[in-house]
Amino acid sequence: MPKDNLKYFLSIVFLITPFLAAGQQQDEQIQAALEDLAEESEQETEDDEFWQQLELYQKHPLNINRASYEDLTLFTFLNPLQIESLLHYKKLLGELISIYELQAVPGFDIITIRKLLPYIYVSDNPFDKSYRFKDYFHHGDWEVLFRYKRDIEKKKGFIKKDSLGRTHYLGDPNSLFFRMRYRFGSNLSMGITADRDAGEPFTGYSQKGFDFYSLHLFLKGYKSIRALAIGDYRINLGQGLINKQGLTFGKSSTVMNIDKSGSIITPHTSSMEYGFYRGGAISFGKKKINSTLFFSYKPEDASLTPLDSVQNYFKTFQSSGYHRSETELKNKGAVKLLSTGGSVRYDFKQGHVAFNTVYHSFSDSMKHTNQWYDLYGHEGKEMLNASLDYALFMRQFYFFGETATDKAGALATVNGLVMSVDPRADISLLYRNYSRAYTSLYTTAFGESTKPQNEHGFYAGISLRPKNKWQLNAYADIFSFPWLRYRIDELSGGKDYFIQTTYSPSKKLNVYLRFRDKQKSLNQLKEAPMANIIPTHKQSLRLQTDWKYSGHFRFRNVAEFSSFRGGNDPVSRGYFLAQDLIWKTNKSFSGNFRIAWFQTDDYDTRIYAFENEVRYAYSIPFFYGNGIRSYVNFRINPARKLSLWTKFSRTWYFNQQTIGSSWDEIQGNKRTNVTLEIIYGFK
Fold this sequence. Notes:
The protein is mainly beta. The protein is built from seven helices and 35 strands. The strands form five sheets. It has a 24-stranded antiparallel β-barrel. The protein has a two-stranded parallel ribbon with strand order 1-2. The chain has a two-stranded antiparallel ribbon with strand order 6-7. 37% of the residues are buried.
């Protein structure tokens, strides 16, 4: 049958297929991955570039016929084989003529297509037209955002005064965020970001206005320029062994998503004050050979200690971005960091191979701490890393990896395989071997640790789709640490098991049940001349139901149980129950409400839970103790180009007289937060 006739036949078949509902705006898998990320790093991130990009594709859907491999890697629920399968399908049969044709692409099931639908389009859209370069600056969208946030109850740092009558936190409790950004699709972005955290002075103390400012200009896909960034930007090379900045998901329910490669240059537009470069970067090339060069000079926060009469040293960079007290202000920008590097990549029909390098120079020496676990930490004023990374598609197999070395010759390597063994079954395998002596700066690679250092491990994942309505994802990760670690004063290892079953019988109902079992060793937190190492065992079980009652209302139920046992100590337990109501009565009004109850025996059984926020924001607080958590979130559009968002949240703790610790301590048993946001968009 001729190719055109075959395509029209397929289109007729799919046009009579029942309509597939668009997935929820914030996919449950992404929420779960963010919760896992917060739990592993024990901190939330202010990086909202990921959400900005998803919002862009919701406003201006990505034409699936023009989408590149790089474009599609944004969607974390797509694995490399699915992306390659789609590209191969288009190459073989030509462009898709209907959304429903995705059902004919090998590896695409109904659940995956539903998740993808809010962000894609198969038709003419404004960004498919032929524009001249000067049009990039006249046919895009401007957006101005202002956000105000405040805790109602004052923390100790705003109350207690010193002998001079000054509070520890030099500013007021108000948090302010401003961003003005222009975007022409994904081809051009430019803007300014300003941020001031609660407690940071707005004037005085050498402060002039906001504590943090960021500017960027980003151009993509113009002639031989693959990407160009001026101002603040991020660099992502290979699998993250020598440089990876920005939001990176680790082990999660998207068990096939183990390849960490993506766009090499991206703009930095969030309020994060650490983990990006400031200067210029360019990727260029034609056909098979592409090159990337970048240069950066940026002050970083650090605590300097005198080394001798003329030199200072620091132990680590401070990534919080807080400059609320005199000490924090003193550490602001204390170390000047010069960074440069690049990449040369050769693309061939079935993959690529690339050479990457990064060099850092510090104004002051870095020294490791006196702790035994940090014996192999970096020392000196310079860091140099180089690596080779590759990717290879061979029918139903996708191979990828990176091998890196540092200035001292220590090695780190990660290699993976994603394969489709059946139209309804995929398998992922990954091996990593990170030397205990390997050092790097801006890196986030696959592993149990946040850094690719002092770890060996093997990961295996499987994704099964026995029927269109069912999906089962599971992984097992076995790891070991060839040297001591923080809170582990001996050689150790562990196991991490995960399984999740998802049931989507219709466009109105989605249910998942997940279980995680993690075992590893830790120092026993008891006073003793020598640390006593004990095995720990943590388990968690979550059931979540998302039910679309009508076109205007959705209900989401979350129930989670956690348990922890250390050595011969009694088992501690934690419980979390939440009920969400989400509504969207019309284009001008929407919102969501949550009421939750939590009870945990201790910090080890804390439970992380994703919360809806104002636009471009999200929060993943953890809960321990005993109490009630509630919030309400509203969006109103009083005019076509104007959006107003507000969130009011409160946590009540039972049998507790204070909340928090140190300078963040609150007297009382409740904590209340208010967020207000204004967004104005125009051409």
